Amino acid sequence: MKHTLSDIQQAGFFKRAGAWLYDGFVISAILMLVGAIIMGIVSLLAYSQLISLEGYADTSAYLTMHPRASLIYTASLGTSIIGFYSYFWCTAGQTLGMRAWGLRLQNADGSRIRFTQALIRMGTSAFGLGNLMALMTEKNRSFQDLMAECEMVNLKSTPAKK
């Protein structure tokens, strides 16, 4: 069932922070997995002598100090984060942390956000600091919610009486 702002209240700062922290653990696990896969690929390429790790202490040094490798490595990690949030926000309206805290991201009419809205939201969130605005606004709107023209609703709140 989709809820609109008239049915349900916007999520407050502390619930947003809880979901953000929870998602941080999930993102950390994803980044470790992606990093391990990339390190495995680079190790295989070095073992096959398709690349040389000469001048680097190990695979990790190669990935962080070699200009092209570090760019690819950083882009892969960034793409993983963008993919995580975009997938969950656009398909279900909830990340794992948001589901645990009873929050959902949606448009004002209750529909799912579009991929472009997800990108705008990520680009304007200031690594989560945009949520501080929810402390200062009457309707608990964060900066990224305003910029992406969406809302984060608290599904565990009591619907407003009409």
Structure described in brief:
The protein has helices at 13-47, 59-65, 67-91, 96-100, 115-124, 133-136, 143-148, and strands at residues 103-106, 151-154.
How are the SSEs ordered, and which strands pair?
Layout: H1 13-47, H2 59-65, H3 67-91, H4 96-100, E1 103-106, H5 115-124, H6 133-136, H7 143-148, E2 151-154
Antiparallel strand pairs: 1-2
Explain what this protein looks like in three dimensions.
It contains seven helices and two strands, in the order ααααβαααβ. The chain starts with 12 loop residues before the first helix and ends in an 8-residue tail after the last strand. A two-stranded antiparallel sheet has the order 1-2. The model has no long low-confidence stretch (mean pLDDT 89). It has helices at residues 13-47, 59-65, 67-91, 96-100, 115-124, 133-136, 143-148, and strands at 103-106, 151-154. With 162 residues, it is mostly helical.
